[in-house]
Amino acid sequence: MLQQFTWQHFLVATLVLTLIWYLAVILLFYREEFFGLITRKKIDGSDNRLPHRWEKGVDQLDVNIEEEPELMGASKLPEGMSLTTSDAFGFSGGISEDSKMEQVGLVPDVLQELKAVFAKLSQNDGNKRDFLEMMAEVREKFPKLVFNPNIGKINGFISEHAPFHLSAQELEDIWD
Known about the structure:
Blueprint: H1 7-29, H2 31-38, H3 97-104, H4 106-124, H5 128-141, H6 151-161, H7 168-175
Helix pairs in contact: 4-5, 4-6
């Protein structure tokens, strides 16, 4: 019985069944789009929208907000705050040596150097003269320390940890 079917009969039957299948899928799932294509109707979604009751008869308010004050008045910014534009502020330029020292922390670095100086003094049984020579090296590393507002704290640290007495004049002379 299969011998009676030719390739031509098979291909025609396959083509007809395929067309029936796709026509059924199109009619079931894409009915609106299909009939829209046949009647040349646009499918941009504007025809399928539901009508909204607020679209008809809405009055447009032409009120200039800047000219008329608000009912309760203009809002006030918190104390110390102001409005600025983006071009009214900026960040600092390149990083200089002074700003690097301020960012890292000048006082902790000096205190670390002083701890190293006191450790050397205790290991070598150093005296005041050795201390002043080592402090000359520290002064060369930190030349801007004289102008630091925390110089009093640094001098207090030196007077507490020094194994000998230093007068106030000697502490001032260390940094000059």
